[in-house]
Amino acid sequence: MSQRHDLLDFENTPRLEETEFSQLADAVISRRKLLGAGMAISVGSVFALSPVGKALAASSKSMAAHFEPIAASTADTIVLPKGYNWDVLVSWGDPLFTNAPEFDPSGTCPAADQEQQFGDNNDGMSLFPLSDDRAVMAINNEYTNYEYLFDHQGNKLTMDDVLKAQYAHGVSVFEIRKGAANRWSLVKDSKYNRRIHVQTEMELTGPAAGHDLLKTAADTSGKKVFGTMNNCSNGQTPWGTYLTCEENFNGYFGSANEGQESTEQKLYGIKAKGAGYNWHKHDDRFDFAKNPNEPHRFGWVVEIDPMDPNSKPMKRTALGRFKHENAALHVNKDGHVVVYLGDDERGEHLYKFVSKGKYNPSNQSANRSLLEEGTLYVAQFTMTDGKGQGKWIELTHGKNGLTSANGFADQAEVLIFARKAAKQVGATTMDRPEWVAVHPSGSQAYCTLTNNKNRGKEGQPVGGPNPREKNHYGQILRWTPANGDHTNHIFEWDLFAVAGNPDVHSDAYAGSANINKGNMFNSPDGIGFDKDGRLWIQTDGNYKNEGDFAGMGNNQMLCADPDSGEIKRFLVGPVACEITGLTFSPDHRTMFIGIQHPGEDLQASNFPQGGNAKPRSSVVMITREDGGVIGA
Ligand code: FEO
Ligand code: CA
Ligand code: CA
Ligand code: CA
Asked: What is the mean pLDDT of residues 402-431?
């Protein structure tokens, strides 16, 4: 029933035909041949010889990681380079309070237990330091696996079960403290500890708040909403708040009757059968035929103050409504706050928000309203003579065809139906934009395009940053804003890496020159830079380790040098997991990563406890035996 599978749908991915490559794909191949022939240049990009690649290479410092890369693995454990260790910080169901019960593997515990425990399927996370050895962690709990949540696997769902599932979602906030050997532990009953879930009261704010499309029978203000869900990845602001991103919210809505969906609901994937959660069968709020505006109240970026457990989470409508992956926030050199946002669905788009106001480091409370007002843009990519160029197109009512005549009554409609607006202005359809990360120097931004089996079908032409038909490996895009100014409408782009399998293919599906038999992977998803500028890449892909994916093993994490393009495998996860979520302790001697859904769909995993234990999503700490900085 997992939505992940609906999205990825590897089972149905047809084998690739080795013909019909685009001109661009040919360029990828010849690039490989050129480099494979022993040219004495160090490049990471299929376009590295273009002016774009040269400009990018010159703008970043070499930060090669110093560890011995590891081989692929299919073992039900975490594998790391020599000199590195791992340990679990927290697993699904661990109590955040002393009066909450310990995890009960029977699948029969009541909803009330889950409400006081760490949620399921942890994803994006941020750390908010209190001192050198104390910090508050805010972390997403994206979804839940009914096959493990319930002894009946969801087949005899009650209203209490629905509540339990809702409490397994959302965000967990808790304090952690540093102990020996750079290991941290959860502090039960800290005043910061809090569960935010599908029943938590929140406020819709910004330009769309209070609009008729956001009003329901239960909320005639159009501003008061309960809950956040499918919290995928995240963002962190310099004013001390956490951003959680609502991704596949559509799957929680359903209806008894087919054919009730509006055109706009279809555009967001709302379907009568939902994704199998079946909340609508017990709670009318999730029956979109009865409450057609309730789905409009999800699909936003939510700002949370992790330091105040009584604060109300704010849904920031200025950042648009779509299937938000993460929110990569960058304070531009002129003080405007820029937030890059991916919409993770085949053929959807890449967005950018620019705040109206400017960041003021000496007045943090004034910064709290920066995400309330600004301009949303969507990306359009072009390529001329092998050179990647692009522009950001403004999504403002009255401009670029976003008019009443074209079905947009006002700015609120542009934001609520951002996908429709993006299509109206001619945005480029992308291969599922996942995380965006901005290099610490501010020079470039990177985005994982995880895969897209539909590339090449109608409306999704092959080319530009999406160079391969039936793309089941994915690629990493990067762009450089004109004049180093992220508010500029113009940018240059190239592909940092095109994933592939050089063991199985010798064409464009072998990948770019920086992909080899020792580091191959598929479906890049989570990415983030450490303070020194190393790029960490996490995968959420096909782990069958056969056919097109032979030799790739379980999902993994790699480390790349943005300058040279070198990519080295750093970590392999347990059976049937995804690696997602990344943050560091303030001294960068502990790396926190997420192991999500080990053993999904009842595959044989007992991670992390081993033996016959039920597999549990967990936050894992990576440390070095010599206590050094991770990757250095
Ligand atoms: Fe929740 Fe697109 O990953
Ligand atoms: Ca993801
Ligand atoms: Ca993914
Ligand atoms: Ca996942």
From this structure: 98
**pTM across the whole model:** 0.92
Distances (CA, A) of 150 to 91, 157, 160, 162, 164: 17, 9, 11, 11, 9
Ligand 1, atom 1, residue with closest C-alpha: 232
Angle at 227 (CA atoms; ends 307, 100), nearest 5 degrees: 65
CB of 142 sitting under 6 A from ligand 1: yes
Tell me, using a 6 A CB cutoff, whether residue 494 lines ligand 1: no
Of 58-67, 132-141, 224-233, 389-398, the range with the lowest mean pLDDT is 58-67
CA pair distance 137, 37, nearest whole angstrom: 48
Which residues are near ligand 3, the ion (C-beta closer than 5 Å)? 525, 540
Pick the atom of ligand 1 nearest to 323's CA: 2
Please name each of the domains of the chain with its CATH number.
20-59+66-247+299-624 (2.120.10.30)
Residue 223: per-residue pLDDT: 98
pLDDT digits (tens, 9 = 90+) for 430-449: 999 999 999 999 999 999 99
Cβ atoms < 10 Å from Cβ of 88: 17
pLDDT for 63 equals 67
Tell me 563's DSSP state.
T
* Ligand found nearest the CA of 325: 1
CA 524 to ligand 2 centroid distance, Å: 9
In percent, the amount of the chain with pLDDT more than 70 equals 90
In three state form, how does the secondary structure of 536-593 look? EEEECCCCCCCHHHCCCCCCEEEEECCCCCCEEEEEECCCCCEEEEEEECCCCCEEEE
